[in-house]
Amino acid sequence: MKIGILVDSSAGIIEKNIESKIIKVIPLHLIVEDKDDFFDTAENIENNNLIDILKANKKTSTSQASPGELMNKYDEMLKEFDHIIHLTIPSNLSGMHETAVMVSKDDEYMGKVTVIKHSLAANTVKYLAFKYNEMINNGEREPSKFQQEADLWKDGTFISIIPGDFQKLAKGGRAKSLLVTILKMIKTKVAIHWLEKPKKLGLGRTYGAVLEKIYFPLSNEMKNSYELLIVYLNEASIKVTDQVKNFFNEKKVSFTIEEIPTVFPWHAGVDTIGIIAIEKSLMPKNK
Question: Smallest Cα–Cα separation from 136: which of 285, 1, 281?
């Protein structure tokens, strides 16, 4: 059985830039002022100056791939593969997961698509997709094994976010479970622990203060050796990103810098920072 992997653009994978021929990407939608709709692709972002639009503080929102778009992608992939492992953006961020489950139950896709249940986000999903690629290359053909791997990542990862603009995040409906009173504290930074039900880690007037609120549970929860990723847009404030890097340098924690997938700052502001830790034992050998 030939297996293909499908992710959406929230994973931060640019298909043409990776060696794998079995990982495919379906774009989500980036929407400006409730009227201009762009596929979330590197080409569209560059050609339409979408990061400049984000920095200009215009109203920005996202939309999932439509059922029709998803069906077209499944049809396209099933010409090449016998089975699809679909790793969507998590259900606590979008209805994409529910749409995929619904479509996968259609008669023409029944038994041919496995939609993975998880609460992982951003670059974490990218590395899980790479791990799936490794599993397939090593001969894994049992769909249930991919769900089991995702379950391991739930306990072996730590995902946190410092929104660049918490008001923007809340207005977009992505922070309903958090304290709305934070909105009154204009200069306060917020650290969010990204779980199945995201929760507030802490508040602070400075990035150093909120990073301490992230570092304490991170160091407690990640008992095993881990790789730390600091993710943000290239266009984020250097003043902000330097504070984050300096914090972990002072803690003598090594890290890798990566670009955050656009859909996250699209909801939470251009200076949004993600702090992600993944157990080294889970990471794919070829990244």
Answer: 1
